[in-house]
Amino acid sequence: MKLPPVATLRAFEAAARRASFSLAAQELGMTATAVSQHVRNLESWLGVPLFERHARGVRLTAAGQEFGITVSSGLQQIASGAERISRGRDRTVVRLASLPSVVAHFLTPRLPRFRALHPDIQVSISYSGRGHATEADLNIVHGARPAQKAVALFTAETRPTCAPAYATKSGPFDDVASLLRAELLHDDAEKAWRDWLAIEGLSLPKGANPIFEDFNLLVTALKAGQGIGLCPIALLRDEIADGQLTVLFDRAADREKYYWLIEADEMTASARLLSDWLVAEARESENRGDYSAAKT
């Protein structure tokens, strides 16, 4: 394998990315003259000019632009591989970025099973959408199909849900119109309930019912018997099965939305094990998580 000197590649990549020999020199801790010499050596090795030099600075040639992309990608892969090995990630650590609701209601009750199967793998869990997703091996997101390659873990369909005690106290809820006299609690915004009721030609009652920015806070309020919320049933199968919550109507909203599992471009063996396990657990939960809307 015939490769240019690594020092020339590092100097060229920095100069190409910064569009400046002097800025590249500051980044690499050398002089602009040294960067320029490295680039000239690389141009000599390749036999083509990579920069156009003029009085106000430098500009990449067409060949320089093409080679810059290749070199930048190659150096990034080397850096990522070195980081994984130095941290022991390939042996023990898998980074999972996830929505807090998925961690609280789906992952946490099941994670001990994964730990029992793979005691040598440490799962590092962080919030998705807060800058951690780009560093994660796996990322769980919510919504329509992402642009990246993704696997649908389970549906995000929402249905009216409350504590059985609230249904007994404030019911009966025999039809959708009966919900208009209930305390309708909101997850993030009132739009979900407004759209759900509009399908039946109903309007959201005027009032100041609570809005919970975090879904876990909404579920806490529902369990406390404070009202009815539109909830993704796939996340709450355990709470429904043990009688903490009940579903009032089968008709669902957000039928086009799912919880998606996105894999990093480069997956370690440990990350692959966790990914396959998550998919299997989601399928098992879906298969045994049957329910029927309560009759109140």
TrEMBL record:
The keyword Repeat is annotated on this UniProt entry: no
Keywords attached to this entry: DNA-binding, Transcription, Transcription regulation
Sequence ranges assigned to domain HTH lysR-type in this UniProt record: 1-61
InterPro entries given in the database record: LysR-type_TF_proteobact-type, LysR_HTH_N, LysR_subst-bd, WH-like_DNA-bd_sf, WH_DNA-bd_sf
Pfam families: HTH_1, LysR_substrate
PROSITE patterns: HTH_LYSR (PS50931)
Keyword hit for DNA-binding: yes
Family to which the UniProt record says this protein belongs: Belongs to the LysR transcriptional regulatory family.
Record protein name field: Transcriptional regulator
